[in-house]
Amino acid sequence: MKNNLNKLKLYLALNRLTGLIARDIEFLSQYDGDLASFLSSSPVSLNKAGFSGASVQQLKRLDWRLVEDELRWAEAENHHIVTLADDDYPELLRNISAPPIVLFVNGRLDYLKKPQLAMVGSRNPTATGKE
Questions:
Q1: In angstroms, what CA-CA distances link 107 with 11, 15, 69, 77, 87?
Q2: pTM of the model
Q3: Contacts of 28 (CB under 8 A, 6+ apart)
Q4: Residue among 55, 59, 80, 60 nearest 70 (CA)
Q5: Count of alpha carbons within 13 Å of 105, Cβ hemisphere only?
Q6: Contact at 8 Å (CB) between 23 and 51?
Q7: Which is nearest to 109 in space by CA: 71, 67, 74?
Q8: Window from 8-12, 57-61, 120-124 with minimum mean pLDDT
Q9: Which residues, at least 6 apart from 36, have a Cβ–Cβ distance to it below 8 Å?
Q10: How many angstroms separate the CA atoms of 17 and 20, rounded?
Q11: Is 25 in contact with 46 (CB distance < 8 Å)?
């Protein structure tokens, strides 16, 4: 259980990094949820793994209280945190070009496996988008 909790904390931490997307974290499998090893990685090795200098700096300054807040949120009834590595992650969503690293689900997880409809828009569309 501790390994799973560490893996979840790692994904939640990475989810807080601006500009990081799923393909940037494929190397995570080598850490297998070992949060301490990942966090002690040198900036050079993180850069080689695909992290930008800005992402490395964000990671080193991460406010872990926010991660703990998210874990507490998940303790409520019908609250779930699903990472890209989880079996419950929707397969069609996993296959888009930049899937979210983490999903915060309020409701039944089994609904993620059912047919779904998504509406995407912008609060500030371009002129072309408005057409």
A1: 21, 21, 19, 8, 17
A2: 0.73
A3: 10, 14, 38, 85
A4: 80
A5: 18
A6: no
A7: 74
A8: 120-124
A9: 6
A10: 6
A11: no
| 64-121 pLDDT, tens digit each | 899 999 999 999 999 999 998 899 999 988 888 888 889 999 999 999 988 887 777 7
Tens of pLDDT along 8-45? 888 898 888 777 766 666 666 566 656 667 777 788 88
* 109's tokens: 């997880």
Look up residue 70 and give its two tokens. 């998210």
Length of the chain: 131
101 Rama class: left (phi>0) / alpha (psi -120 to 50) / beta = alpha
